[in-house]
Amino acid sequence: MNTNYAVITVGGGIVGATAACAVAQAGIKTALIDTRNPLREWPEEPVDIRVSALTRASQNILQAVGAWPAIERRGIGPYNHMHVWDADSAGMLDFDAADTEFAELGHLVENRVIVASLWDRLEALTDASIICPAKVADIQLDSTLAKVVLYDGQILEADVLIAADGRDSALRQMADIQTTGWEYNQDGLVATISTEKHHQFTAWQRFLPEGPLAFLPLKNGQCSIVWTLSHQTAQEYLSLSDEEFLQRLTQASDGILGEMLDAGLRGAFPLRFQYANQYSAEHFVLIGDAAHAMHPLAGQGANAGLLDAAAIAELIIKADQAGRPIGSHKLLRQYERWRKGDNLAMMSSMDVINKMYTNQHEGFRQLRGTGMSWINHSHWLRNYFNRYAMGLRGDLPDLASTKAV
Ligand SMILES: Cc1cc2nc3c(=O)[nH]c(=O)nc-3n(C[C@H](O)[C@H](O)[C@H](O)COP(=O)(O)OP(=O)(O)OC[C@H]3O[C@@H](n4cnc5c(N)ncnc54)[C@H](O)[C@@H]3O)c2cc1C
User: Fold this and answer.
1) In the structure, what pLDDT confidence band is assigned to residue 404 with cuts at 50, 70 and 90?
2) What is the third-level CATH fold of 4-76+109-181+273-356?
């Protein structure tokens, strides 16, 4: 096996596999390492409980790296409206694709669909190698290159080592990069639900005292829910019978989609606010959840990670085309400056929103109600938040801003 690469990416989830596709399709020799092979095939039903709301910017990136056609073929659920309302005040917000130049605000896609389509694409690229299953035992970073030591004793070398190995990144620890953050003591409870009324291609989100409850419209007419609850309540709800769970859900949903008829598997994910104090070191960068973990209330974690992947790929490709070194710390710091501020701003807004809506103080309730009505009645503000939610604001990488779709 070859042991020298220009770029090695560790972690072939949504974010790492995208970065690997982007650099490999530009003719840069790259390897993707993961501990496990992702699923490529499964029965059509049931829909998986892990689903992502992808923004227009993410769709552009996935289109530009050649994975979107396979994602579309495997199945996507468009949504063209968003309705947000507060259980404790009269505040509500509506966003509609009709206010934009696009037919929809975004798409709901199963995570396994995105990952399988990216891996299919990677296999078709001559400059990409997949090393899997393989686990990284150690890394060595110095001023000349990055070395990756695998558990089977093999040593691989690269100009740039991209760590995309998720929230508990082992590579981040190996690179001695510290994190800042805290546990929310909240879980995101997820399930696939059949509802009495059709979802109308709308993403519904109700803010409740323990956290938001979102109904995300799926291609088959069902909804994927993300219900933020205290850790204790989430664990209790996981153990309820289907009937009891559906009753609580109908009540919490304010009957917006009628009765809740059926629930498939349920799962709960502990939520954390966490960011890496640095995104880069000599010949090394962090992307995706390895760099930042945020509250899922606006469904932005994978979207932010895809922007990281597009940004680092763009810098590497441009440096390579100009004959400049792709692993210099100067270049990798440029990536850090580009993405860290944006990600911190996004994570902090999610954090503030979560705190505002779980605070039952009368002053906060009034402020929420007034603030939401204010935004809802201002065309300019709604438009601003619309474009923010679609990922089309800020300093976008080329792959995200191409009008490829
Ligand atoms: C309830 C919930 C709902 C969410 N909804 C949304 C949403 O609607 N929209 C959105 O944008 N985001 C959403 N997110 C966030 C999103 O799921 C994550 O941000 C995203 O999946 C992170 O992707 P990643 O590729 O960075 O990491 P991961 O998905 O964690 O992938 C890491 C990969 O690295 C591999 N790996 C780990 N360790 C090693 C190792 N040592 N060696 C080799 N490989 C390794 C793993 O096998 C895996 O393939 C949600 C999160 C939660 C909890």
Assistant:
1) very low
2) FAD/NAD(P)-binding domain (3.50.50)
